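Retro notes, structure queue

What went well: the backlog is down to a handful. What didn't: a couple of records were mislabeled last round, so from now on we paste the full input next to the output in the thread. Example, using Secreted protein from Tumebacillus permanentifrigoris:
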Amino acid sequence: MTKTRWIATTTTTLMLTAALIGCSTNQQVAQDNHSAGSHAIDHTDSQDHAAKPTELKPVWQFSDEHPQARQDTQVKFQLLDPTGSPLTQYDIVHEKRLHLIVVSADLNYFNHLHPDMQQAGLFTQTLNLPRGGRYKLIADVTPTGQSASSYGQWIEVGGDELALKPIQLDTDLTKTVAGQQVTLQFDRAPQAGQETMMTFHFADATTQQPTTDLQPYLGAIGHVVALSADAEQYLHVHPMEEKGSGPDAMFHIEFPKSGLYKIWGQFQRKGEVFIAPFVIRVP
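Corresponding output:
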């Protein structure tokens, strides 16, 4: 019978060496300590989350040491406490214990997933990535009694690769998505290290009438993920007013460093989740 070989990573790319652990049928090479960059931020509680606790150790495991594009690959994630035991208690934040963000190196691919905790402390998710190349996985969790934390891992995916297309600055911050005219606005020009109010304004793309029937997505009017162009600065923010239905969704956000950032706003209307992406420059 074929045995699944689980590989846990030690660096920012998937390693190719394996070491048999005890008499287990699984194989691991070690554990990853690489963080996602900037910690997650959630302003629904009117406070910034502190950096993740250093005593917790992340472990990423993959069912295939050579993941291939357009083929299912299982990824598992867990945190170990200082004794090496799996952490089993996590707060539910916006209806989920873990938010898994997956992006390609050029940020043209984005997915926001919610792995199940199938056994104590071990989250499992099936990935099926569209093309070969580098991808970053970011696990966003809140261990019970501690601050929100994010843990990142780069992986290499085999298969046909498209030429990387670096993100381009949006000169027009109005886009049409899912029949909605979505405009991104700021109360003042974003500056690194300074908090600003970011507003998504929605109107019907045909009639221009303000949209007032947005539906809750994961318990809120919307969610926003932002990443720097190198995918090292990560922010996950939630709205100021969770129960709204439009036409505005407002978020406090503070960009940690200067540079280009890609912003993905996720919203729901008529039972369909849609994403409004924008690229801005932060001086």
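Agreed that this is the format going forward. Reviewer comment attached to the example: The two ends are 57 Å apart (CA to CA).
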